[in-house]
Amino acid sequence: MQYVSVTNLCDFAARKGSIDTRYTPTPSSEDGRIAHALIQGQRKGNYVAEYPLQGTIGELKLRGRADGYRPISTNGYPELEEIKSHRGSLERLNPDKQNLHWAQLKVYGALLCLKDDLEQVQLTLCYIDIDSEKQHSISQYHTRQDLIKFSAELCRVYNVWHQQEMGHRAQRDQDLHAIKFCHPKFRAGQRQLAEDVYKTVATARVSLLEAPTGLGKTHGVLFPQLTAMPRHAIDRLFLLSHRNTGKSIWREALSELAPETLRVVQLEARHRSCDNLTLACHGESCPLAKGFYDRLPAARQQAADQAWLDNDSLSSIASQHSICRYFLAQEMAKWCDVVIADVNHYFDQQALLYGLMRQNNWRAALCLDEAHNSIDRASGMYSVSLDEVDLANYAKRAPAPLKPACNSALKAWREIRKSNPNDGTTFLHEPPKSLVSSCTKLASKATEYMIEHPGDAELQELMFHCMSFTKLAETFGNHTLVQWSVYKHRHRFQRARIKLQNIDPSDFLRHRWQDCQSAVLFSATLQPFEYYVDLLGIENPVTKAIPSLFTKDQLTLRVIKNIDTRLHNRQHTAQSIAQRIQQQLQETPGNYLIYTPSFAYQALLEHELCDLQMGHRIISQTESMSEDQRQLFINNFRQQRKILGLATLGGIFGEGIDLPGDELIGIFIVSLGLPPHDDFHREMQRQFSKRFGIENAYSYTFLIPAMRKVIQAAGRLLRNETDYGLIELIDQRFEQPEIKALLPTWWF
Ligand code: SF4
Fold this sequence. Notes:
About 45% of the residues lie in helices and about 20% in strands.
């Protein structure tokens, strides 16, 4: 039997009470480490820090490390010490949490009694306040009999679960050994993809696989991943997606391939799965948080038995036990073989899945669909913005203890504005030191204040922003731009906003790839590979492109060279573009999509198109469309013919929509969709030339992101082997060799 850590044993069997996510400011792990070292350094004589303990209690083999051990304490007993750091008054420390600390210490005590054949030990729980370094120690004396009895009960509870889990794992692996592909045979290219995925797991690598549309990518990736799980001792499979529809695609494929024993859970963001969104997550506010841990064991057992935990089944189980389904899903992420989740659950700063994987030493395999979106998503996870107005608004009603910190932060804003007074955006060389330091102080004061006065949501949000800002400022480098924007608030008062905008997340992601067992990133648009490898921080990857299933004769490709779509010529050329489109629609009526680089250009073109009699209904994407409006837009193509849709490149209809056959017979791509040559992108290009060389900077900033959008938009056309259609690239620059080199070779 494998060892069980004392921490995991207690977390499972000794945790009681309610969820409480009110900001009771627990120290960071770095603070905790410093506090531990401080106390351990003060202990003299025969004190041994980080004392390892292991032994068998009941059926379980346990292992752990007490913070301190003394063979003989001043009271004449062998002593074990556990150090816990905290902030603020000890009286506010959650009693449920204190019980958990004692439980851990008692199990260590039992292991010590067994190891040294002792009859009694002294257990000391030492709390240290991070800010004041004040220590408070509580000692208890326990007999061997009491400690073993206490620990044996925890072990009994855990062991019942542990035995079940081992049985589940054996059955799961046996069933996975026997799975069969859900179709009679692989499609062309799909087998090759499946082999590449299997090899990735077998050799514990990270792969970037470009796999074309129509190949059945999801099945082609999932089947070998499941097959590899028992053969390569994979504990967990994380199926990650950038969009909610991506999660549904994983779920549907799993429902066809996975054996019934495989436990699957889908994680959602809190705003999508909370039943009491207006309440706070603690027992005094939300009834579903109250007594959560007391009712969890029964719910957890039912969820484990059910195995397939999509949103509906989680809701049903949670409501039967009157607990929160959002937190139930998080709990089940510990016990499910497969977790379907958004990418942020593995990659962001506080990612749940990454934390669980490290804590439990899981061998976890990752699969990322639509991996071409990973750079932008990850950049967003490591960016933060602060607005002076938010602080000024809070400062007006700030309680007296926080006034000085708020005023000092506001003073820092004002002084930076004096040095950078012009309305508009400029780029600073680094986050202003005065602002970082005043935000650090404000966050610290707010932390202290909230210990005694929890529940101020506005203060909590301000504090989290300040903390996030200072944390990212600490790791500042040329992977991040500092945007300083001055603007007129309510058309009168000058105010400022600062944004730490990450442009290259590779430094933050490198360890995420190294720590998993294997990872497969796949997409229909993943070239040039070097761009993704560089910006995602992947070392020594496998890269492969599977040839397209479509042939040149399925596609009519035209480059319209005599129309200039650059910004200064758009007014003059919109009419020519409209006439060209009219000509095509008259020759071959049907459903078409026109992609433009901006809503302004789209409006201009729509105006010209409306003036022409084309016999087609024109529909347009608008800037903020609800889910229903989006669906309506797509349904027009599904249910009607002679539809001419206008959409933006890189927008909501630029990828992820499937319009096979005559639902879509042609696409016009108007202009290259290059990012604007503004200060931001010039600054980005400058930093990229330092990070990736001057020869790559322009393409990494402008060309590759633009062509990715073009290829994704064009990818809406041919969806299966019997599709035919037209792509018109309307801009003379599509003929330039450096642009052509970034487009799929089979187009030409
Ligand atoms: S139901 Fe909502 S408010 Fe209540 S504990 Fe769950 S997430 Fe928090």
